[in-house]
């Protein structure tokens, strides 16, 4: 029955409410800056640091594991371990240099 009755027309949006919303958004952004809220740039730098660390650790561990396994299979203890460990480190540094030379987006 209520649907059949002519109801009140919706009110026009009040300019005071719009102004208040804009001031609230501005105040929240200023407060975030004042409190030192993290920005997207800090997150990108954190991810880049983690990527560099992963490259370094991955290269060293990968070379050591493969070298140790080949030494164990071929009986050439410690030569392949040392060789592949240094190759893994060199590869990690090459990748880190490549990452550092990329332009940031």
Automatic annotation (TrEMBL):
Keywords: Hydrogen ion transport, Ion transport, Membrane, Transmembrane, Transmembrane helix, Transport
InterPro entries: Atp1_alphaprobac, ATPase_put
Top-level division of the source organism's lineage: Bacteria
GO cellular component terms attached to this protein's record: proton-transporting ATP synthase complex
Keyword Transmembrane on entry: yes
Sequence similarity: Belongs to the bacterial AtpI family.
Keyword presence, RNA-binding: no
Functional description taken from the UniProt entry: A possible function for this protein is to guide the assembly of the membrane sector of the ATPase enzyme complex.
Provenance organism: Sphingomonas xinjiangensis
Protein name: ATP synthase protein I
Secretion signal span: none
Transmembrane segments: 52-70, 76-97
GO biological process, one term: proton transmembrane transport
